[in-house]
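dude i think i finally got it to work??
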Amino acid sequence: MPTDVSMLRRGRVYRTRDFSQWSTNPSRLARRLVDEGELMPLARGLFVHPDEGRFGVVPPTDEAIMRAFVGGPFVLTGPEQWNALGLGTSAWFAAQLVYNTKRSGEFTLGGRRFLLRRVSFPRRPSPEWFVIDLFRHAEQAAADRDDLTAALARAVARRRFDADRLTTMATEYGSRDTQARVASALEHAGQAA
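look at this
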């Protein structure tokens, strides 16, 4: 078993199985590193090698936690991304919404709540995809779909979103209602331009 922790990266989240490259008993190694203060448990079988900042321990990012927990492609979505679109929403959730290809359910990891959903999503989501995702979750974001449609028309008229990409994302990931609303917003944006 290694005696130094040079193999660990600060701020990285590890699963117990990750320690099998350094030990034939990864659970024992993880326990020992926790006892020595080199690892902090986030959940059963999930640990972080804490990074130190000016004000103490820096918690791992949501991305780092999901990278270790899901172990496959995922996208973080929800109010933070929707509010940044500038379409008039100001919602907030108690849990981070995560789309992935492996798990569904609500999980508490490192004291934070994550709501995982197995749904299709692009590998590199664009702002236009987040618009479609916002329409999908309008009720949860406390947004009126008619107000969103009007705000989207204004945003497209100001060239904040690519019309072709919006149409593609609506076709691939949106409901019929969302597709109709995007088409309406694009039509109104054409009249306003």
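The first strand starts at residue 13 and ends at 15.
im so relieved honestly
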